Amino acid sequence: MSQRIRFDISGGPDVLQTEHVIPGQPGPGEVLLQHTAIGVNFIDTYHRSGLYPLPLPSGLGSEAAGVVLAVGEGVNHLAAGDRVAYAGGPLGAYSQQRLIPAQHLVRLPDSVSDDTAACLMLQGMTVAYLILHTYRVQPGQTVLWHAAAGGVGQIAVQWLSAMGVTVIGTVGSADKAALARALGCAHVINYREEDVPARVRELTGGAGVPVVYDSVGKDTFEMSLNSLAPRGMFVSFGNASGAVPDFSPLLLAQKGSLFFTRPRLHDYIATRAELEALAGAVFEQVANGTVKVQPSARYALADAAQAHRDLEARHTTGSLILLP
């Protein structure tokens, strides 16, 4: 028997339940996977709460690392015993064992541990598509990154700094400010105490930044718009504080002919080639020492609800994982 987390109704962390199942044998194109570490991400809370509605009942989680136990017919790029990881595909990562389409799995190089992979795949590939594709950041540019001490933010700050990019990071506490600086932020703004757009203008000689990366949402929406240079891009990729408010496209014109985009990882790994390329870019940054990632907290699989409480209360920095 294998444990997994399910929920029958949308709501708070208490709707998460542990159940025992027999995963069965892999069918054509499938793999039976034994999880070794499971990533916990903000999008999981959106699925659980109903912000991103799902057919219920449902499993949860879209990122994990593990070992292949068996492969189904037609699976030629993987074999039993392979170390693999994934971010995407059908929900259900909050489990000890699961069946999953093999197309979502990538082999892990020796340079990436299972714990690192479980908090790197989704967040690392998110950073990769955001800075390499959504807006192609160039050395010498200055960017604003909200939640610089969060899981995605920590990876982004290290990667961008190594590229020769000046990162202005926002945080919500002194401890998080110290962490962001240690990771490579050239400037850190405590958004609870400082006027973010005014400080950004001061740091950029009044120009503003060409791009803002915002995973916070409602609380930082106006800050982001008002920090951009003319023709700058607002990249909204999360809603940690709630969804951004409805706004008229005319507002973008009034603020300087701004661009606004709401990307998602799924559309940047739509093909096997794209998945391999994006994952490979992340693994390269780990192998060369540019990006160093370890989970900041570990929870038992059965304690998934507590992990969600801590994440939503912003009591954590960096990445969280579940141990099955």
From TrEMBL:
Family annotation (InterPro entries): ADH-like_C, ADH-like_N, ER, GroES-like_sf, NAD(P)-bd_dom_sf, QOR-like, Quin_OxRdtase/zeta-crystal_CS
Pfam families according to UniProt: ADH_N, ADH_zinc_N
Keyword set, alphabetical order: NADP, Oxidoreductase
Domain of life: Bacteria
Gene3D superfamilies, per database record: Medium-chain alcohol dehydrogenases, catalytic domain, NAD(P)-binding Rossmann-like Domain
Annotated Enoyl reductase (ER) domain residues: 11-322
SMART domains: PKS_ER (SM00829)
Record-given protein name: Quinone oxidoreductase
Species: Vogesella aquatica
